[in-house]
Amino acid sequence: MKNYLKFPLYAAAFALMSVGMASCSDDETPGTNLRDQREAALKLVVADYVDRTVISTYRQLADASIELHTACVAMYEDGVGNVTQAQVEAAGEAWKKAREYWERSEAWLYGPAGDYNVDPHIDSWPLDQGQLDDLLANSSEMAKMDADGVYISSKDYGLLGFHALEYMLFAIEGTGMTQTSVPHATDYTAEELSYIAGVAGDLRNHCIFLEAAWAGEDNIRSTKQDILAQVRSVADFAQNNNSIKSVLTDLANGLCYGDEMKNPSEAGGSDIVNYLSAVQFLVTDGIQNIANEVGNVKIGNPTGMGTGDDFEYDPNYIESPYSLNSINDFKGNIISIENAYMGLQSSKDYNSGETAILPVDHSLSAYVATLDPDLDSRVKAAITKAYEAIGEMREPFVVTCAQGGEYSGVNRAAITACNELNDIFDEVLRLIESQR
């Protein structure tokens, strides 16, 4: 198997570790024993994290994206003048469902989501309305559009993904604080319906890429394998999309990111050489990355209150403005942090009825609690604080983000809570790293 996380399989390394653990005696150094115990515990944490949190979330995201594509293709096939309001509403609800699973996956945007540019491809904003108008008016370009989303995939990120579909499926009524999001009118042109189907197909393809890249293509449903086969058969259309070509090639060559993360080895020349480094990656590139982005970029950019290298004041940097889903997006990101740290919490209201994503048996939270129960409690409290602080924010965020406005204090509190959440995971890392 080709090593895409850049660490090969673990058999020899784990055989040595197991022998070492079995032969520990009172004469051995305490540090070595602590390291072995830590590795044994973190092995279980990483396995549950990959199988029960990451892959199961991506599986639901891929399923939801297929539902969304099906709804959009139904509109496209019925054609101009025949699209019903019920169809638009159904597509909008399918968009919200897929969107929720995507936001709940953003605590692990490393790996395939980053390596193959899936994140910017399906979740860049704001939409480039000028380019969209030009595309829809270009008959030669529109003639190349396909409902499987292969041709559109080579276009700029500002024309793709969730926010392009959001723009075509939702509309804003009212002004100021009276704004509401409603289903888009049914008066689509033929070009718009073709565009909707193509973008939905491209989104579906990339969501399936994520599941397949983590689980292995052989381990996804046959219907999803068939979709990937169809994309491969017309992939020559996407001449400029090297990411699609790369991921399809790597999947065919056995890419299974989840297995590689669960089986690290020092022999691979990777930064991830053991379970400690896997968890360091999980925390820094996963949890802390999204905590910082929510606070200092997603909220910080539009409000002008962010800090750090990623912050750039931009009052137009509003995520999900057409569906008025911005704050729900932010909350979903905090849930993704909770799931990465604790596994799915089925007792939480926002997880009510969730059966496809499974609670874990061995969470990072449970391991931290064995070392420092107080720290584990403080991490959980920080997660809750960030979630509730964001919950105090109000839509439409394009209005409430205004500097010096009525909601400035609420917005600042949410940013502060996200930064505190980021910072407390520094303590988590120090604690785990000290077990040596």
From TrEMBL:
<dbReference type="Pfam" id="PF09375">
    <property type="entry name" value="Peptidase_M75"/>
</dbReference>
<dbReference type="InterPro" id="IPR018976">
    <property type="entry name" value="Imelysin-like"/>
</dbReference>
<dbReference type="InterPro" id="IPR034982">
    <property type="entry name" value="Imelysin-like_IrpA"/>
</dbReference>
<keyword id="KW-0732">Signal</keyword>
<dbReference type="GO" id="GO:0030313">
    <property type="term" value="C:cell envelope"/>
</dbReference>
<protein>
    <recommendedName>
        <fullName>Imelysin-like domain-containing protein</fullName>
    </recommendedName>
</protein>
<feature type="signal peptide">
    <location>
        <begin position="1"/>
        <end position="24"/>
    </location>
</feature>
<feature type="domain" description="Imelysin-like">
    <location>
        <begin position="56"/>
        <end position="401"/>
    </location>
</feature>
<dbReference type="InterPro" id="IPR038352">
    <property type="entry name" value="Imelysin_sf"/>
</dbReference>
